[in-house]
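Q: Here's a chain of 392 amino acids. Please give me its 3D structure as tokens.
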Amino acid sequence: MTSSKKRADRGQPNRQQLIAKLQKALKSAYKSVPANTGSPVLDQVLFACCLENAHHAAAEKAFETLMKGYFDLNEVRVTTVAELAESLAGLPDPSRAALSLRRVLQGVFESTYAFSLDHAKKHSLAHGIKTLENLHGIPPFVVSYIASTTLGGHVIPLDRGALTGLYLCGIISQEEYDAGIVPGLDRLIPKRGGLEFSSLLHQFGADCVASLHGAAVKKIVQAVNPAAAKDRFPKRGTTLPLPNPPAPPPPKAGQKSEAAKAEDLRPAGPQAAARPAGKTPMPPPGSGPKRTADGKPVPGSKPGPKPFVVKPNVGKPITIKPQPPEMPPAKPAPKKAASGKASGKHVAPKAGGKSGGKTAAKASAPKKKAAQSGGKGASSRHSSQLAKRKPR
């Protein structure tokens, strides 16, 4: 390195001086918003998913809509990303926030079979951060935000907006902007002012995402580093390119890559996020027609089974036939006069007394039937009618 370059580097302000200027400019432009640490940890995590790259007012409104629009958190977990994005329309990137919410809830449910993360703050700071990092798909900003607010650690949460603001001010390089990591930032900010600086930097980053060429953003960048404002600001009408993180190192022998692990943990079904192009798996053998190496069905092969359609469980309506009104029991007919009395002659009974016994039994039979029909006729008729009805 030549002496002229050394002199140029010495003339430029270092990172500590730029951060001190940035902190002074942010205090004059914004007011710190304290975090709500009294709510359950899972609610704070879901709120942080809405807060990424968004203002506090928009995040609070979206979180309130989410809590009131759904019955419970399990309904949010099984809702599609598109439907959740419609509920979070006030955020700058509703689809990203909806995907983060679903992944967090799915990870919490698979790890504890309950919607609670209060056990993350019962032990040390390292244990709480590890518990959050084990949730598949949780954004790094959410982990840093919970670690700095709920867990009481000294961490500066950085989302895409905060990285954009630091890059425009010349505090971080292009490599640090792409990697999303600013080494030594927490050491340059004292712990007693860490929460205040984090809140002010987040508001500045939300303005960078909402209006990159706005007057508020340009005023702060000019106050911190006028030279970087000329070199790093994109032209009007264009946006700053998104961070391009470096490729992860290749996995060791016998281990899966991070992409393969994420694909294994991705929930299946219509409520899951869309798979990237070329990642749709082939059907298992025997479940469809024979296919060639490129995935096309072989002509002449048998088609696969028809898709199973779940029909709604609709029971048959119960029909009760109208019953006719009950009739009163019929009265027995009056006895007819005997032939002997009608003719005026007396008929003597035959010898042996058999005819007398038979006639007495015949005469008493209709009386017994009439007595039985009067007492048991109604109950037997009612039970027979109930037996004919169809069971419900």
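Q: Can you summarize the key feature?
A: The CA atoms of residues 135 and 172 lie 29 Å apart.
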